[in-house]
Amino acid sequence: METAAAIKENREREQLRRIFNRTATKLEADIKVENFSQVLIDIEFLKSKVERLEALDKMIQDLMLESDSYDEESFSIEIDTADTYKYRWHTINNQIKTGMSSKIPLDKIEDVKPARNYNLPKYELKKFDDNLKNWLAYWGQFKKIDEDHSLSGEDKYQYLLQSLKEDSNARVLVESFPPSAENYTKAIEQLKARFGREDLLIQVYVRELLSLVLNNNKKQVSIRLLYDKISTYLMSLETLGIVKQKYEIILYPLVESAIPETILIAWNRCNTDPSLGNQLTSLLNFLKNEVETEERINLARSDFNCIGTNHTLHRQQISSLPTAASLVSNIKPKESGKVVNVICCFCDKSNHSSFECSRANKMSLEDKKEAIKKKGCCYICLKKGHMANKCKSFFRCLSCEKRHYVILYPEIHKKEKSGTLENVSLCARTNMTTLLQTLIVNITYQRKIKKVRVLLDSGSQRSYVKAKVVEELGLHETGIEIIGHTLFGGVDQPAKVYKCFDVLVSSLDNRFSVRINALQQSDLCGHLPKINNEKILEKLRDLNIVISDFDYTDTEISLLIGSDYLGSIIHNETVSLGNNLMAVNTKLGWTLQGPIKVQSTVNTSSTTCFSKTNLSDLWSIELLGIRDPYENKSKKDTVVEILKTFNDNISVNAQGRYEVSLLWKEGCAGLKTNYEAAFKRLESTTKKLKSTGNLKMYDQVLQDWKKNDIIERVINDTNTGHYLPHHSVIKLSSMTTRVRPVFDASTKDNNGWTLNGCLDKGINMIELLPKLLIQFRKGAYGVISDIKQAFLQISIAEKDRDYLKFLWWENIETCNELVAYRHKRVVFGITCSPFLLSATIMYHLSKYSEKYRKTVNKLKKCFYVDNCVASFDNVDEMNIFISESKEIMAKGMFDLRGWVTAPHRIDSIVEVPVLGMTWNTILDNLRCNVNISEARSEKITKRYVIAVAQHIFDPLGLVCPATLIPKLIMQKIWEHNIDWDHEIPEELAQEFKIWLSKAHFINQCLFPRHISIAPLEKCQTSLHIFCDASLTSFAACLFLRTKLNEQVKVQLVLAKNRVTPAKRKMSLPRLELMGALIATRLYKEVLESRLLTKCKEYKVYFWTDSAVVLSWLKRQAHWKPFVSNRVIEICSTTNRDDWYHLPGEYNPSDLPSRGCDAKKLMESRWWEGPAWLKLNEKD
């Protein structure tokens, strides 16, 4: 019973029962005094709580019945307790009915109503639009219909549909239920579960109060509007059980912070009531009076038509400018009698908080999350006692503004996750850095002496000692203090508990010592530079000034002395060393402060990896065609907004060329210079080009660009701004450009920002691949072409060109004089470039949709970035398409060239690449192109296994049975927690070698490009979708069956398999259900590919060998959430009657659910479907 779900539901039920008892007691008292106006209000509130209580009772009782530790006596107690609450509820209901009927006789109620001689306006239902803020108002209105017993369930269902906004998620959810009285109740339950959850609604209104606080300093809001909003949010929270009296200590500061400054000053002047109990009510009454006063003034002015200057009250803003102080302490007195015990969830120590754990800084993000989950802590505040969805903490990450500590910021771990080998080269160059006041001192405790590096920081109000020093010396604890920090920029960190220690600090010569009280901190600051300039050191020697921090090996700061003790340490003696560099004498020794030139090393990393895609790309490819529909909808909404912005900004320049702007993210900080990194990469690229003899060819490409106005020289470049490092890509197999520059927009500037990080990607183009390839396999004749230098045909707006600069040589013979260029066209290598090209092509095509309607419609569906991929059922139609396509694209200065067709080919090319696959134009078949020999290695490491798995690009899943094996091995490697470059266990290595020895057979798996026996509209067509699961994976595959004149052809269209989650063990029936879910999504992907648009009639069959899954799909019952959610999605896309059972031995999806080697796959010819599928339907 003690599962996470059971614990969560028990806690919620306990809270609801407390609310029930409190409200029921109040109701009983009101009934006695016949206060029925209040009774009617409270009974509605209590009714919603009872409904949720009954639902929780049922869920908990179901969990008890299914538990392995089921106890009959405990279950009996549970039933009796639940019945007690039900009995009290019915008793109160009966008391209300009896009391109200005695007060107003039932037969007289109609007589009491006054006569009405006028027509009321038409009553329209308020439509719900998915906005959680509107739920309470919506449900308050619709509840009258829901509780109207004179209406049938079918009528209520129709009213429910009418009250939901078109295309809203709520409407989609309700429409997934077939209209019936029984399904109306289910639909209401689902709506309440998704939109009417009290915990979510409470968060919504608290966040709205927070938004008022955040917007307070941004824009002026009228006091009337502010009062209305605050009152609305507070009343909504009160409806949800957050009563002002109980939660005033939280709500009062929020409301007070939302008030404009001048009103707040007035409030504090008139606030004479010191008691906290009625502060919030007093503040609301004050605001109400202010609103009434303002409205009376406006009324007086408008009534007397005052003419004259409208004197606007210019409020003097009291600025709170943040200083350079890194630590501002707000000390709260220690609460008497309370011992604060803080345990870190990462290392189980009590001397620091979880979010400042030094051990956690060395952990991966996944390991941190696992540690948090294991300790039962909240992902937001890292404390025990609640989960993230119940967390009341208001702070946000300083890096991404999301609700978590910086220690869980994903960007910190990206480099660790990359799984790439880095060759780091160093380049010594003159640079500037700033020295802070650091020196070396001795810390003494009970005859133990430790030499440490100390920072003198006048910007900190307190002194701090590193936890490591406390542990090594065993320093004496003097107490604890609660400190709140304000970081640079005015960002407040939540207060936390610090231990205080007595620290004796002395100079190295023991001439001076001082005892300070320091707070313990796990890490004080990052790396601080030391003096390494020989000229300055010689000057210091001449002045007889000894810098203790010069040759000390430890670079960590172990002690920070703040302003609380600096006055007793610093002398007034300073020596100027020029250029704002000062030597400052202290009683602990000399320190340096100010800017200095140093010989720094510029780290430039060149990444070497076996594959062109990283690990996240590998999983993205696995999800092609089977992503969650809600995730897809969210992405589509984002793309719609980006497209709108794009269409508003696109233009045609004087050359007749389309001109676009980069897709900048909102709130992205300005990029700083990365000149050093760009220069080093230029040196590396030049060296490589010289060694391969391609320098002149590379330079010729750039000179051609300059001649063709693709790039332009930057006049008087100051070595500032953002530069794009570049390198060469040599592709000898290319039919056009053999050597071309590729630009890197992921290089960080001096602030750690990258150009790609500041730009929106737009649509993820790779998700279009399955649909395009299915279209390519539809017609009898395949056609491909591409746009010549497509990206370079689109101009970049002038305002964005300074972010696209790059370095090259004035003369490649000497390579000693630099010159800066900047791009005038879209750059290949920038994250938004594929989207800019695709969006420009779509914009261009829309201009010619009337004149070339058929061709334009075809072109819109067959472009993947700069590649055109299509198929046709006859040669004439194909030739018209080629001719008109060239003409249309030429009007936008796009040269559509390199046409290849088959089986009647125009050229003599045998094999050509098509969207990651290889097309044999003679045999008209497709295959996955695998060259494992590129990645051969004697040492089998985790990095190597992933690199090999990435080599097999299979967007349609045609060879997914063979690619499952390395995925299963990768999962086992992850369970062993092996480092990237360590050899994997011998057992796994042997299993991988056996699979690898047969992987080359994937190249021999040849798939017909054309998947039907004839044009689909002439055939008897049916789709057959199979699903299956094993304990290690689940899978689905979709076959097209076409029949013409007793000839039958069956071909695999799409298939996918997924490895079962390692951390969440599922039963086999649930895995089978996951297979059915994938089958549904494959079917939806094929429908969206428009494969069957010309078919007047076709049949659909879904096949599973699981009787349990079939019962879940066929029966309309109340299943558990996991089953229910997936059944709802499956039945919203498919027809229940289209699902059939077949014996396991006839199920072709058994192969991808278990996996096999490539040789077995080739011999099985799995892609041709099961033999029984080629028989007549009657057989």
UniProtKB/TrEMBL annotation:
Annotated Gene3D superfamilies: 3.30.70.270, Acid Proteases (2.40.70.10), HIV Type 1 Reverse Transcriptase, subunit A, domain 1 (3.10.10.10)
Pfam families: DUF1759, Peptidase_A17
Leader sequence segment: none
Keywords from the named record: Coiled coil, Metal-binding, Zinc, Zinc-finger
InterPro entries given in the database record: Aspartic_peptidase_AS, DNA/RNA_pol_sf, DUF1759, Peptidase_aspartic_dom_sf, Retrotrans_Pao, Rev_trsase/Diguanyl_cyclase, Znf_CCHC
Domain of life according to the entry: Eukaryota
Domain CCHC-type: residue ranges: 378-393
A biological-process GO annotation: proteolysis
GO molecular function: aspartic-type endopeptidase activity; nucleic acid binding; zinc ion binding
UniProt feature coiled coil, ranges: 46-73
Parts of the chain that traverse the membrane: none
Keyword presence, Zinc: yes
PANTHER family (alphabetical): PHD-TYPE DOMAIN-CONTAINING PROTEIN, RIBONUCLEASE H
Protein known as: CCHC-type domain-containing protein
